[in-house]
Amino acid sequence: MKKRVLYLLLAFTLSAQAVNAQNPLIKHIYAADPSAHVWTSDTNTLWLYTSHDVPGTNHHLTMFDYHVFSTRDLVTWTDHGRVLSVDDVDWAISHAWAIDAVYRHGKYYLVYCMIEKATGMFRTGLATSDVPQGPFTDIGFIQGVEWGQDPCLFVDDDNTPYLFWGAGGHCSAAQLTNDLKSIVPGTKVDLTSQLFEVFEGPWVHKYKGKYYLSYPGLPKGQWPEEMYYAIADKPLGPYEYKGKYIAEFKGRAGTNHGSIIKYKGNWLAFHHSAWLSGGMSEVRNLMADYLFYNPDGTIKPIVPDSLGLLKGKPNKVIIMLEAENGKAAGGRLNGTETSNAFPGYGGKGYVSGFDVSHDYVEVLVQVANDMKANLKVRLAADNDFNGDVLVGAKTLAGWDGTAFKKTNGWEEVDLGLVDLKQGDNKIRINSKQNANLRVDWFKVEPRL
Ligand code: FUB
User: Fold this and answer.
1) Which domains does the chain have, with CATH numbers?
2) Is residue 32 scored above 90 in pLDDT?
3) Most buried of 218, 297, 308, 388, CB within 10 angstroms?
């Protein structure tokens, strides 16, 4: 009898863990290389700037764009969609690999790496936005950095910016100029020999006045990568190697890459694994775990499990796609235009100018696997109008030349359940006649 109760208890605990699992952190899209930030402009929100793995590839050669995620409670996460792609960067040709971000002088910067068309080498690009969720506009690459893969832009308490980068078993760092656009001459250092078994992906955070440089390394030169760290008294070193904080674990990817940050009083470690792709080791998903220090300042090793940042609730995700982001977020404005004259919109504005039939606004939804999702659109229409909603190439059942009602200002219209296909999905709304339609955003809630 006693045994039965124990079994039941165990079964209940395991199923509760599965339901409440918070790792993988984000389950609707393959994302990797998370850079976590809390900006001084709003300390309640945690942001993740990530790269994006292409479903079905199992390599990193065709990685093409970046995503931004945000949360205010570590339970509900918003995917803000594509924020920059190789197509948006004139000087680049491919390899949208690891990224970082920084908030400086009232602007948000994406600090990213792509292969330069002219030289075939990795450059560290800068792109800016007025808002943390992007999309971002490229402003060129940082002068003086060659093979600038896996950038980490660390700003010290005195506001001095430092860039760390690393690839192929090397790690370098330098002070940056105030505008972030170039290296301060004479400040570049090669940190490789100070970082035991370093391979790539540096991340710097500060704890109790010391500088912690964490990085993916190759144990005895063999894959998979594990997460190591070293500590210094000054940002540019010298660094003293301290150990590993995430060793190889079940379901790990070939690579790992992480960031460490304090949010609402807790230290968190973000990284990636291959749990979601079921063993395709180069198709990765985001992971998160709490991080604890020993009294001597060393880090207690983390063994990732499905509970992650468990708050007693399963994670929830919302994909928020602002209509006005258009091409910069992988969407399209056909015959329509952006505006901000009609108050009450979310984001930076809305799309209007649906003057003739086939004028439309389209947004891009990217998902890891085929899935169902709830779709909502926020719009304002001065008159009733007939319109279509398309998901992929197909008109959405029930929304084919359908009569949309005149709204009372901005209203959320529930378009129902849609089928999303693995990879890229375009969602489009068009008005068949001029009804002074304005479209603010699309909200997609994956049913996972
Ligand atoms: O995501 C592509 C590459 O894989 C990153 O740049 C590396 O850090 C590794 O995670």
Assistant:
1) 2-314 (2.115.10.20), 323-446 (2.60.120.260)
2) yes
3) 308
